[in-house]
Each structure stands twice: as structure tokens, then as C-alpha cells.
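Contributing: when you submit paired examples, paste them exactly as shown. First protein:
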Amino acid sequence: PVAFALVSTLGTLKLIGRPLDIPGIMLWVVILGMGVDYAVYYACTVQRHPDEASPAMNTVKLSIFLSAATTFIGFGVLTLANHSLLRSIGLVSLLGIGYSLLGAYFILPTLMRKIFSPFDFPAGAVQPASREHVRRVLLRYRLLPGYPRVFARFKMKLDPMFSELHRYVQNPRRMLDIGCGYGVPAAWLLELHPEAKVYGLEPDEERALIARRVIGARGDVQVGRAPDLPDVEGSVDHVLMLDMLHLIDDRELQLVFQRIHDKLGHDGMLVIRATVPSDRKVPWKRWIETARLKWTGIPERFRGEREIAGFMEAAGLTVRVHASPVPGVEEKWFVGGKGY
């Protein structure tokens, strides 16, 4: 769209016999920036709401139009000035802003439809935690905003959870992911198990939106928080609660465990990863999370191994605890179920 505006402006000036002078060249930098702004606003909205009929798309289109209209009028009146310098600035601004708006409205949507066209994901078996496995997961984030893409890449690279998760979730068909975040663990498991479906629950609307895009047709993500569960009919075979147990209080924890017990099938399993405070001198990951909780006003609720297992057993779940094989890691796995 910006290239279209540049070529069209220069072509129109040539057709009407007006040379491009120094003031026009200087002002074109400003117009170029405005055209880039329109494109960025539109593209960022498409990343979150690819449906052109969505209310968000209508809102951003109206915002772009009003922004262009006010600038168009403000600079356009300079074409009526008697001074040749001001008249030249007004003419270049009028043409540049007008063509930038046309490009954003008529060229950019076509480009976005081409870029966001349906994509066939790689199929076939993949080795857990292999380079190909990571690549397939990242493909699900390829058209999403920058922060979730970077988050997913470094989460899989730095968190030892992803080299261990497949040991505790085997042959899933229907999974619940409570506190799914951006959907990285869900996408990780979906690539390992082509027949599986994931139904997530996430209190943050932005994260739920991203996770919903990542999971696609193989599940859904709803906005909510424990002790609620995703609204899914029938039983499930796996429930995931990864790195979120410290965000809910004891009453909510007991209630959600009881609801999970009722939702699980006969051989279903609840898989939890939680931070268990240790005697390490520098538990820097826990310190960072504690600081974040204080900043957001959330009480700190890191629980001991026996306490977590006790809550699970009180809900009727048989529990096994597994320590991470990575040295110096405070996170532990709690696996429980009716038939475990």
C-alpha cells in the first residue's frame, strides 16, 4: 500500500504538470509514516481477528478512516493558499494521504487474505522434543502477534517441562487445559497426538484469543478461571493444570479437584506441574513469580508436596509424585486419577 501511494502520488503530480519540489520531498517522509501506520494497525488487527466481518475489524477501519480524514482536511486546505510553498505542501499531502488510505482499504485486505490463506500443517509421527516437533508447534504461531511468537519459542527452549510432558500425557483423546495461557503445552501435545482435542480455560482474554487461534479446529478455549471447568459435554481422559496451582486458594483448589474427579473418565488422569518450595539458596524462578504476584496484588500460595497430594486424595484421586530429572528445578509433577 505504501508503494502504491508513492507511485500514484508521483504519477499524479506528473500528469498535472507539477514538479516534485524540495518541500514535497521532505513532507513525503511524514506521509510515508502515516501509510505505514495504517498498514500496521490493519495487519495487527487481522492477526487477532482474521474475520473481516468482526466488530474489531470494523472498528479499526473506522479509526483509520477518521485519522486519515482529519489529516486530509488539515493539510488539504493548504492547496488553497496563495503562497506556492504552502500550496505545494498541501497538494503533496492531499495526494499522499488519499492514496495511502485507498491502499489500506483496497490493497491491504487482498494481501492479508493471501497471507492468511488456509495452511496445511505437516502430518506424520514426530519425535517428542525434537527440532521438527518444535518447528511444527511454532508454525501454529507464525501469523500471530510478535510477543506470543517469541514467548512460545523461548518457553519451549528454556522450560524443561516440554522434555517431560509427553511422559505423563499418553494417548489422549479429549483433554482439558486449565490456565492454558497462550496454548503452548496444548499445541505441543496436539502435534504428538493427531487425534486429540484440547478444551482450555484461561482468565486473560488476550491469551485466550491467542490460544484459540493456535488450537484451531482441534478444540476451543473459553475465558474463565478455576474452580470452573471448560463447558464440554461428556467425560475427558486428561486434565492439565500446569504452573497455575499457586494462583488459586485452598477452597477453590478443593472444589476444582472435586469437579475434575467427576469429569474424568474411568481411566482418566489429572496431570499437575507445580512449584514446591525447596531449601535452595537462590530459587530465582520462584522469586520472580513471587515479585510478579505482589505487583499484581495476588497472594502467594506455593504449597508443599504433601499438601497438594492431600487435596488430590481428598477429592478421591490416587496420586503419584514425580520430581523433575533436571537438577535444581523446584517444579514437581503430580499425576492422579480414578484408575491410576
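Second protein:
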Amino acid sequence: RAGGARRLREDWQRIQDGFADDPRAGVVAADSLVGEAVEQCTALLNERRRRIESGWQRPGGDGDTERLRAALREYRALLDRVAAVLDWADRARAQSRGSSRSP
């Protein structure tokens, strides 16, 4: 939905601003907000994938080469975004493992 990122950042700012008054409530709110953001991302990614699919996979037609080429480019762009998130997650996991080891 439009403005979703802005709303998430505004909500985050409110959570951060209230942290000193009630740290536990701040962390609970942060967990909820991040959970909501992850659900939104998943839904939006799936919606985008379905939209790409509907552009090339029409009933009764094999699709012309240009339409298929455009679909392939769109899939690549979507995959690049997902891969960037997975790269970040891999780095975060590696850092987490490194920081949890005892000296």
C-alpha cells in the first residue's frame, strides 16, 4: 500500500521515542511492527510475482517472445530484491554466530 514505508518509519520513531519511559513495551511494540512489516513484504512480493505471471501466462496463448522477455526481466528484478534481503540475512546470521561465541 502507498505510504507503507513512511508509516512504518513514523511508527518506529514513536516506539523509539517512548523507549526510555517503558523499555519493555517499546520492544514488544517493535516486535509487533517488524512482524507486520514482514507480513506486508511477503504479501507484496507474492502479489508482484502473480502480476508478472498474469502478464505472460494467459489462457490459450503461449505468449510472444517480447512479452516473455519482459516477464523474465521483471522476474530477475524481483529476484534481485529478494536475494539482497537474503544476503543481508546471511550476514546478520554470521555476525550473530560470531558474537555469541565465547572467547
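If you have annotations for the second protein, write them as plain sentences, like these:
Residues 4-100 form one domain.
The chain has one domain: 4-100.
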